[in-house]
Design a protein that fits this description.
With 498 residues, the protein is mostly helical. The chain folds into four domains: 9-53; 80-274, no CATH class; 281-357, no CATH class; 383-402 and 434-498, no CATH class. The chain contains 26 helices and four strands. A hairpin with a 7-residue loop joins strand 3 (332-333) and strand 4 (341-342). Helix 14 packs parallel to helix 16 (343-353). It is elongated, with a radius of gyration of 43 Å.
Length: 498
């Protein structure tokens, strides 16, 4: 190569030529090395594994890793929000579930995936002053949950609690419609009876709710026979509450209206309800009676009741019993400005006025004996004037009346009547007409029976067993019949009662 002087143009051109040649040779060498390395690695991978992965580069899984893999929860298929709701509901933290549910709804989260746990949340809301969340929770209960007994029970309890809440009538209507849409047909009857027995039964929208329910129930597969039975149940609830019942003929979108036939039981109740019923004593008369009772003015107390009866009003049984308690404690009734009046003469005009109302006088007298603490007198009156009830054990009453009565030196009208009744021949007592007791009379007789038994475990247990057996055989026993046993049985056997 020719030598050139430094700084000359010839020298600069020579240096540039040499640099370019050296860079080209170096780049060619590097590229060839990369290609060879890539070919070697590809060949190695093909030799070790035909899929192109060298598993020798990874460690083999240990037994602990395999165990943890089996125990790890599966990846949920539901959306994250629904899975969070399910987890909170599973833990039973319904208060947090309600807050989370409200927050997700406020954010516009659809929460479309159904969960059977929503049925439990609906019941909790109905019982915990969160009635506005019951219908939204029921909307998200799956349709197939209607075949689950536990879910059906939760929905039925939620609807019943809503129907009993006078402040949640509109929310109860919404929940009933949602339950019908979801197929929870068996959960409706009790709630509907409770709802139509309440304020809704006499409101104009009572018929609107029934019209809305009918197509939903038909879509759920309810037969016409079952619909008629449900309709009759609603009508009976309205009649017992003295509401105007639903019409038998339901307007339809088609030409022919839909008619629901009533059974004989419902028609008989309807006929009795159409009979003229006298109104109860006015609040003004009751206030006057209370003032005279506080002053122990028996003459004016009787005057209030007699005047009300003359105007066509019926005195409440408790007021009549209060008068009888005070009057039968004396043989003569004091009267200002006139001579003393015998108790019999005092009560006779009132009793005659009450003859159009059979059983009212006898039931009031039974209640008066119980209020006065005369358990024997109440039980004697029960046996003499009322038809025996399976709920009140006759053998227990007879055993109590056969025990010697403690000596009592009381000259009262009630004791005189009891002595005169006992002195009558048995044949005369047997021919007297007996009255069919009301549930009020049965509860009064049970209270007298329990108080007469006292804290004796065996007689109480026998009387309670008779009541329970009757309650299981019929649905006509009310809670008041059981209330008499609670204080006495807790004294007789505290540990066993608890």
């Amino acid at each position: 190569m020719a030598m050139h002087a430094l700084g000359t143009r010839a020298h600069a051109r020579a240096v540039t030529t040499i640099s370019r040649s050296a860079f080209r040779r170096a780049y060619t060498a590097i590229a060839a090395a990369d290609v060879l390395r890539a070919q070697a690695e590809a060949g190695s991978n093909r030799d070790l594994d035909p899929r192109g992965i060298d598993y020798g580069l990874f460690e083999s899984p240990t037994s602990e890793y395999r165990r943890q893999s089996r125990m790890a929860p599966p990846v949920p298929s539901r959306p994250a929000d629904v899975e969070t709701m399910r987890r909170v509901l599973k833990d039973g933290d319904y208060a947090s579930a309600v807050r989370l549910f409200a927050q997700l709804r406020a954010l516009g989260t659809p929460l479309a995936a159904p969960l059977i746990e929503y049925a439990h949340a609906a019941r909790w809301c109905a019982a915990s002053q969160h009635a506005d969340h019951v219908a939204p929770f029921l909307k998200r209960v799956p349709m197939e949950a209607a075949q689950d007994a536990a879910a059906m029970h939760q929905v039925a309890q939620a609807l019943l609690l809503l129907a009993r809440d006078a402040n949640a009538v509109s929310l109860a209507e919404q929940a009933l419609l949602v339950a019908a849409d979801r197929g929870f047909v068996q959960a409706l009857p009790r709630a509907l009876s409770e709802l139509y027995h309440g304020p809704l039964g006499g409101a104009p929208r009572a018929e609107t709710l029934w019209r809305s329910l009918v197509p939903r129930l038909r879509a759920a597969g309810v037969s016409e026979v079952a619909l008629s039975a449900l309709f009759a149940r609603i009508v009976r609830a309205q009649l017992r509450a003295r509401h105007a019942p639903l019409h038998e003929t339901l307007p339809s979108t088609s030409a022919a209206p839909v008619r629901f036939a009533l059974d004989a039981r419902t028609r008989a109740l309807w006929q009795r309800s159409n009979e003229a019923r006298p109104p109860l004593l006015s609040s003004e008369d009751q206030a006057r009676f209370a003032r005279y009772a506080e002053a122990h003015d028996l003459m004016r107390m009787r005057s209030v009741l007699m005047g009300a009866l003359a105007r066509g009003f019926v005195p409440p049984l408790e007021l009549l019993a209060s008068l009888l308690v005070m009057a039968t404690a004396h043989t003569h009734i004091p009267n200002s400005g006139t001579p003393l009046c015998s108790t019999g003469a005092y009560l006779r005009p009132l009793r005659r006025r009450l003859q159009p109302y059979p059983g009212l006088w006898e039931t009031a007298m039974l209640r008066a004996r119980e209020k006065a603490g005369d358990w024997r007198g109440a039980l004697r009156l029960w046996q003499a004037r009322f038809v025996p009830s399976p709920a009140v054990r006759v053998a227990s009453i007879q055993a109590l009346l056969d025990t010697p009565e403690p000596a009592r030196n009381d000259a009262t009208y009630a004791s005189t009547v009891a002595r005169n009744s006992a002195a009558r021949p048995a044949a005369q007592r047997a021919v007297r007409t007996r009255l069919v007791p009301t549930s009020y009379a049965v509860a009064t007789a049970l209270r007298a029976l329990v108080q007469a038994c006292g804290p004796q475990a065996e007689p109480l247990a026998q009387a309670y067993a008779a009541l329970v057996a009757h309650a299981r055989a019929t649905s006509s026993v009310r809670a008041a019949c059981f209330e008499a046993f609670i204080p006495m049985m807790s004294r007789a056997n505290p540990v066993g009662f608890l």
